[in-house]
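Researcher: Let's run the pair from yesterday's discussion. Sequence first, then tokens, for each.
Model: Starting with the first of the pair.
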Amino acid sequence: MSPPLQGFNFAVLDDPDFKEDSVREEIIAPLLWALGFASFGAAQIKRSVALEHPFVSIGSVKRKINIIPDYLLCVDRRAVCALDAKTPTEDVIDPDHLSQAYSYAVHRDVRANHYALCNGRRFVLFRTADMSADPAFQFELKDIASRWAEIKENLSPSAG
């Protein structure tokens, strides 16, 4: 596994047309593939899985609401991390974004040990059980080559 994003022009993150879908396709997907995740196999990427939100009712009327994480990273069919993409202009440690990603990780059908956010500039990983505002691991994407060993140690499928 060699570092992904070699030659990626991070200046494109300043382009207003580089949005969340671009972060997913051009940054997160290559990162996950380089770490050993794929659409199939023991280390699987599940995209846009609809999760029924169990607690929504208006008065006595129950409403079916789905929440949809961008990625669920699974190892041996067990979710290990819920990963949410954001646009490069969004702060990945904004409390609203953190609670959104956390809600995916703790969902009754997921129960992942970690949740993470990435905006193309920064990647942050949290331990679900810690309930801390401080990331368990984080890095700037522009530093990916120099931190690749540490990134693999913290994010590869064997990191669990």
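Model: Moving on to the second of the pair.
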Amino acid sequence: MSAKLSIILEGILKEEENKQQIDAMDAAMKAASVELMNHYKSHEAEIKADVEQSQEELNEALGAVAIIGFILALPKVIELLVKGIGKIVAVWKKLVRPGEAKGREKEFAHNIIEFTHEWHRAYINGLKWILKMSGVFKKAGISDETAQFKTAEAVYYTIIAGLAIYSGIGAIGAFKAAVQGAAHGGGFSLAAFEAAMASVKSAEVAAFMGKLGLKSA
């Protein structure tokens, strides 16, 4: 087999492997979305009581780190997120070994952008609905719809940042490069992701990632 043909075949196999990964994660995103909503509806009264009885003080300047710190003190809310979003994490960990993206950061970043594109708005809106219905936004004094969306977006991108760091993509640069080549790069918020990557360094967010089963590579 010629060297040129070998390179072409290797490229085809790599494309097929990437497609299988994206398809597997797409299915996981769909299944986890259903699980998240079903679990909330089944335990709504307990989750609301969990939030209401919390002594944690929140304020309207709330960011992702503060929200996550608050969530960590709520056993029923943590259980909800682990049962829902934890399914995505479990599938990702079957496909990717810790640190596997090192040396292939742009490729892995591209795949993360591709598998999240169809579901990212549904997840952000789902998280927003849960944070609203459970009373978290009320406790924090966040009544503005735009502010609620931004807070939910920050939590969502923090989870995506956790997947990236677990994979070995420790810097935002790979995502900036991948956005240019990804078919759905325009729907990926680099600003929200960059903020999330920074927040993962905080103790609260690191503890949240640990609850979901993600550790830094």
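Researcher: Give me one sentence on the second I can quote.
Model: DSSP finds eleven helices and no strands in the chain.
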